[in-house]
Every structure is written in C-alpha cells, then in structure tokens.
Specification:
3 helices, 84 residues, single chain, mainly alpha
C-alpha cells in the first residue's frame, strides 16, 4: 500500500530549501568584510559569525529538505558553474 503525502509534510521540505538558499545568500557579504572600516578583530568576529550562520542554516535546511532535495540543489549549482 502506497501512502500519499499530505500537504502538511511538504512544509518542512519547503522551509529546508528556503534555508539552504538563505545560506547561499549569507556567503555574499564575506568578501566585502576585509574592506570595511573597522578594527581587524571586529572583522574577524563578523566573518566568523557569518560563517557559522551559513553552516547552521545550511545544515538545518538540509535536514528539513531531505537528501533528495539537497542532491537536486547541488546538481543544479554544478550545472550553473560547470564550463561544459
């Protein structure tokens, strides 16, 4: 017997995909941090916080989305950045 998925079970997967995409957006400010006018120690702390935030959002998103969704997202990213 095949169980049908209820619409309720799709919400965590969609949230997971949104978190994975959000983690990608959080990478954007990292290259700009060295050029900010603040103390080096503050830049290091800011970069560390962003990096940890990226990792937390990605791993939680991956757990919610499931392995199939993560694999699909990785394949799409590879297609975008491949030089074939």
């Amino acid at each position: 017997m095949v169980e049908s998925r209820s619409p309720r079970s799709k919400k965590p997967a969609k949230l997971g995909i949104a978190l994975i995409l959000c983690s990608g957006v959080l990478w954007a400010p990292l290259p700009v941090i060295p050029f900010l006018s603040m103390a080096t120690s503050h830049k290091a702390v800011l970069a560390g916080i962003l990096f940890v935030g990226v990792q937390i959002t990605w791993w939680i998103g991956a757990a919610l989305a499931g392995p199939e969704a993560v694999r699909a997202i990785r394949n799409r990213i590879r297609k975008i950045f491949s030089r074939d």
